[in-house]
Amino acid sequence: MERVNLSAGEWRVMEELWKAPATLMELVRALGESAGWAKSTVSTVVRRMEDKGLIRAEQEGRAKVFCPAVAREEAAVAETESLLSRVYHGSVGLMVSTLLQNRRISREELKELQALLDQGEEEQT
User: Fold this and answer.
1) Is 57 in contact with 50 (CB distance < 8 Å)?
2) Which H, E and C letters describe 74-90, residue by residue?
3) Which positions are tagged coiled coil (predicted)?
């Protein structure tokens, strides 16, 4: 598959399937509770995702069981790259600066960020 580009609704379905494979009715129950979606909405989104190759179905008895065809990490990387490109013109520094200026970041998060920066610097040398 080429670049993964999930809509907000597709993310909701994938979040359920990354937890565990599910039948259409299991997705209807889960997404009905969390998103207020009707069966027809779930069915339409699932069919489109299957057509796009984002999920796949396996017949188990009388029911189809859907599972992700895309790893969560792969989708997260694509989404992060898209956000970075669209909003911050590819500048990681600008993105981090925006996060620091507009959000309270805990000491723990700052320590994690510093550790990641240190690790990245070590890998560059």
Assistant:
1) yes
2) HHHHHHHHHHHHHHHCC
3) 96-123
